[in-house]
Amino acid sequence: MEKLIFKDLPIEQQQDIIKSRIFCDYYMIKADLSYANLRGADLSGANLREADLSGSDLSEADLSGADLREADLSGADLSGADLKGADLKGACLIYANLRGADLREAYLSGEDLKGADLSGGIFERNVCEILEMGEKFRI
Q1: What's the Rg (C-alpha) of the chain?
Q2: Beta-carbon count within 10 A of 95 CB
Q3: CB under 8 Å to 45, separation ≥6 — which residues?
């Protein structure tokens, strides 16, 4: 099956996909998923490069292996999310809630983590470059 480009679909179809939480057949590049309820959604391996996920509820979501490069996750709730092996290069995580998130083997480089809450997060074997963490970074 050929993958479809999410942002090119009619808004009604986009909303149906969000409600169904089935994302495996779509390229989500630059998708506007701001303030979406994606709690517990399976986004494993999803291509969410440059997507707007600001303010979204991604708590307990499976984002393992997802491409989140340059994605806007500012203010998103990622508590308890599975981000194992995710690529977060250049992602905006300002004031994101990452409490208890599993970030093992995630690629971390150039994120803006100002005000992000990483308490209880799991970090092992991460590929890291210099991070701009801002003030009052909590782990």
Answers
A1: 14
A2: 17
A3: 24, 64, 65, 66
Summarize pLDDT for 100-118 with one digit per residue, the tens: 999 998 987 766 788 888 8
Contacts of 61 (CB under 8 A, 6+ apart): 38, 39, 40, 41, 42, 43, 78, 81, 82
Q: How confident is the model at residue 41 (pLDDT cuts 50, 70, 90)?
A: confident
d(Cα 32, Cα 71) in Å, to the nearest integer?
10
pTM of the full predicted structure? 0.78
Class of domain 1-139: mainly beta
First to last CA, the chain: 42
Residues ≥6 apart with Cβ < 8 Å to 73 = 53, 54, 56, 58, 91, 92, 93, 96
Domain ranges of the chain: 1-139
- The token pair that represents 132 in the structure block: 């701009």
Tokens of 88: 């977060």
